[in-house]
Amino acid sequence: MLRNYVTDQGIYSVDVSALVCCILIAYGLWSQHKPLMLTYNLFGNVAKVVRVRMMAWQYLFRGPSIIQHYFDKSNEEPFEIHAPDVRMVFVSSPKHIKELDSAPDTVLSLNGAAKHMLQPVYTMNGFNWFDRRGVEGIGFVRTLRTLLTNNLPFLVPSLGTLMQVRWKELMASSKVTNEIGSAQIYLYPAIMKLVVLLNARSLFGEDLIKNHRFMSSALRYVEETLLSAEVVKLLPSFLAPIVGGSLSRCLSSHKTFFDSLIPATEQRLRERNLKRQGHQVPERTIVYVIHDLCLHPEYIEPIRRELEASYEYFERTGQGLPLLDSFIKESTRLTPVESMSVRRRALQPFTLSDGTKVSVGEWACAPSAAINTHARYYPSPETFSGFRFVDPAILSDTHEYPTPPAMQTKPSKLTDVDHSFLMWGTGRMACPGRYYASAFMKVVIAQLLMNYDFELVKPSHARWISWRVAKIPRPRTKVVFTARD
Ligand code: HEM
């Protein structure tokens, strides 16, 4: 392998492989004077470090399958995986998950993990938060859990109307494929735009969503944050402040977003921590639920019948629709947008009851996607069974539903938190936005089902790309929508 180097004195060629061989031979000669074991250990250690680093970089592109591989070998004991920027200890037994939840916030921190993920100093217009939960009060968590949930009966009808209007506009501006007006839509970008709009309506009100500058910055905000945080995390630490600082100055969407949001939020809620609530939004989940409806069309008619009978009740209460609830849950079980949950960053050294250590700066977490297909928790775990979570008594009342290929022994709801379903995390820090997120997803899916027929243009094509633990829907996946009337 020849490399050419140009200098003032001319061009030099260096054979890199020969050079490496020379170094190894020189090392071999030198090491003859050392005890054999020392040499052996050194080579062993170097090989191990190289292997771990290579795996760490592979994790970026194959995170879910690497986690699944180690989970399958682990027999539910803790196992470690390295990313380029952090070592992670995965725990999967209910006992160990409970240990993470019970650890004091000063030792294992969800805020610290979120901070590491999002690098807010560089990516959020200088906004930052404490590693330790509760330093600024947990008022905003309560606000989300109680106020947002209690407001669902007011929010759901207006979200439904806004959804109908925007989807009609989208259909009108999309490529029409036949004489009955079917339109081909790139699903992921369309759903992202819609979710940003509807969330802004719920969280910031009518006025702000009419502000075009704010809305276009809100759309770019999430993606720019995640992308810049990735760049900063993968850099050597001494470069992070320089590159992060430059990136931060370039992110115009962040400045616009905060400039518009801060006065409006302060006026309405006097609750500054709400600024960070936009980090978890359900657009990816909705995309996969729509894919699953296309891939398992036998569920569409029973769910439509449920909507005809009970959508009005759902609009009034924000509750109900057990068939749709179960279908969404099954879709998220088999295509979770993330393969990891219960992220905690160690602020102090932490030791699990089996002796596994998590050092300061490292993560403890749970392999949620692998748990979702564990035979201990799910009969026929790899089979899509859209109504597996429904109470059998409800199913026997529903006419002509497909016989579920598998049923859970105990019925459950999408919003239920359990160690076998970690979509919302666990214990005292379980997602307070889950009632809102779940009702939100039902509004979008129900409106589409009631008003449109839809099918995937290329059902057998790959539908996502993998980055770390995330499954990101492919932006070029197309779905054809046809108005039902
Ligand atoms: C499909 C959508 C969502 C998913 C999958 C999700 C998932 C999660 C998860 C896994 C956690 C961490 C829990 C733990 O580690 O134990 C969490 C925490 C949190 N989520 Fe969500 N979430 C979603 C939507 C939302 C929404 C819409 C909001 C706000 C409106 C929200 C606000 C929060 C907050 C504030 C926390 C931190 C709770 C605390 O510090 O105690 N989430 N979420």
UniProtKB/TrEMBL annotation:
It comes from the Eukaryota. Belongs to the cytochrome P450 family. GO terms for molecular function: heme binding; iron ion binding; monooxygenase activity; oxidoreductase activity, acting on paired donors, with incorporation or reduction of molecular oxygen. PANTHER family: CYTOCHROME P450, P450, PUTATIVE (EUROFUNG)-RELATED. Its main location: membrane. Heme binds at C431. Keywords: Heme, Iron, Membrane, Metal-binding, Monooxygenase, Oxidoreductase, Transmembrane, Transmembrane helix. It comes from Xylaria grammica. This is Cytochrome P450. Its cofactor is heme. The chain crosses the membrane at residues 12-30. It is found in: Membrane. GO terms for cellular component: membrane.
